[in-house]
């Protein structure tokens, strides 16, 4: 009888182990399908962040300085949607915030029953012992892209995290010696897991990579997207850990555009889903159409510019149909706070990738834009928010406008 109990106990334990391994090795496509562009950023002291269009942020603290210096427990800022993780423990979590929810969640993957298409999954099968540096590699699945973040001396751990023909899209490697990484990439045994892009710190040394495949970025941000990562020779990127600084001539018009967006958000955030969906008897647009239209125009115009400069940014057209009879709301269940968040996401998107405007003056015609100058576009966006917000406020005085 005891033998049978031991066998059953062993089978139960083995099943749990297999489930755990499957969760770590399987694709996270169930959590990340939207295809929106991500921002990968390098920060001082071996910190790497991944930021999504939805406004979720994952900060990975590799902490290579010493065993103790990098120690950091999972740290979630639920209001901003930011989580910071270190190399102290095994992780298989999902960062998400569903529409109409105020706070983000950081939940073990096996407990995540409902996830939005914008969820970010973070896996780190390793951990840190008391007297050894962490033997771990971080895998981040977001918006259809798989990103590996790893210290250079832990590259040997990467291969065991992928099965079959699955490979990472981007690998961010914290190292002081680019030559060692290049030697690792040349080994035939590692060919199956080489990503489309390898990202290193500009402080890691010079490159012997062919010039057409080597790129240097003089700031800390890179855009990547599922649609933009093409089949091509592996690309190498060297980035600094310092943010891009917007030139003074762009600061004022950019700030004014953002302020107009924020002012509109204050109006729409107070509305319920019922009020947003209100169809005036005079045949004019619903309040929700105005929110979608303002957001959609800015997103389209700026993504056209960014796409013309870097095809990692797709052209993003979320504009609603123009005429009221043809209009179908994109998200009829969203309340006003969520519509305001969507406006802010677009504003953040424009700011996040504004480094692509490097070398463009306000009086220049931007690549991919139909506007005569960049300044004209930003002034129109500022005016556009004001006009449609005023139109929406006027609807509040109609006799049939819902009370709540």
UniProtKB/TrEMBL annotation:
Residues 1-32 form the signal peptide. Pfam families: DinB_2. Residues 258-388 form the DinB-like domain. Keywords: Signal. SUPFAM superfamilies: DinB/YfiT-like putative metalloenzymes. This is DinB superfamily protein. It comes from Crateriforma conspicua. The lineage of its organism: Bacteria, Pseudomonadati, Planctomycetota, Planctomycetia, Planctomycetales.
């Amino acid at each position: 009888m005891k033998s049978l109990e031991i066998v059953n106990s062993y089978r139960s334990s083995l099943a749990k182990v297999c489930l755990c391994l499957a969760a770590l090795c399987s694709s996270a496509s169930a959590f990340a399908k939207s295809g929106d562009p991500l921002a990968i950023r390098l920060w001082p002291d071996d910190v790497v962040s991944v930021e999504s269009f939805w406004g979720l942020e994952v900060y990975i603290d590799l902490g290579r300085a010493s065993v103790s210096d990098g120690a950091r427990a999972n740290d979630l800022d639920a209001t901003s949607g930011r989580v910071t993780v270190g190399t102290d423990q095994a992780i298989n979590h999902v960062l998400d915030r569903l529409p109409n929810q105020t706070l983000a969640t950081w939940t073990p993957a096996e407990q995540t029953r409902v996830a939005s298409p914008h969820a970010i999954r973070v896996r780190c099968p390793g951990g840190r012992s008391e007297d050894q540096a962490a033997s771990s590699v971080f895998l981040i699945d977001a918006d259809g892209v798989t990103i590996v973040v790893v210290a250079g001396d832990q590259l040997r751990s990467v291969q065991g995290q992928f099965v079959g023909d699955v490979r990472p899209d981007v690998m961010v490697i914290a190292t002081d010696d680019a030559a060692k990484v290049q030697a690792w990439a040349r080994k035939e045994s590692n060919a199956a897991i080489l990503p489309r892009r390898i990202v290193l710190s500009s402080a890691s040394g010079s490159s012997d990579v062919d010039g057409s495949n080597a790129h240097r970025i003089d700031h800390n941000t890179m855009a990547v997207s599922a649609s933009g990562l093409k089949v091509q020779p592996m690309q190498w990127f060297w980035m600094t850990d310092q943010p891009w600084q917007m030139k003074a001539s762009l600061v004022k018009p950019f700030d004014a555009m953002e302020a107009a967006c924020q002012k509109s958000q204050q109006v729409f955030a107070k509305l319920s889903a019922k009020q947003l969906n209100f169809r005036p008897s005079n045949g004019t647009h619903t309040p929700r159409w105005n929110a979608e239209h303002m957001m959609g125009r800015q997103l389209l115009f700026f993504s056209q510019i960014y796409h013309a400069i870097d095809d990692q940014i797709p052209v993003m057209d979320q504009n609603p149909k123009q005429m009221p009879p043809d209009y179908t709301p994109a998200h009829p269940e969203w309340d006003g706070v969520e519509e305001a968040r969507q406006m802010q996401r677009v504003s953040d998107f424009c700011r996040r990738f504004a480094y692509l405007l490097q070398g463009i003056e306000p009086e220049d015609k931007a690549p991919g834009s139909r506007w005569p100058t960049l300044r004209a576009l930003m002034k129109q966006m500022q005016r556009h928010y004001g006009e449609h917000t005023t139109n929406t406020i006027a609807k509040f005085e109609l006799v049939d406008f819902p009370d709540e």
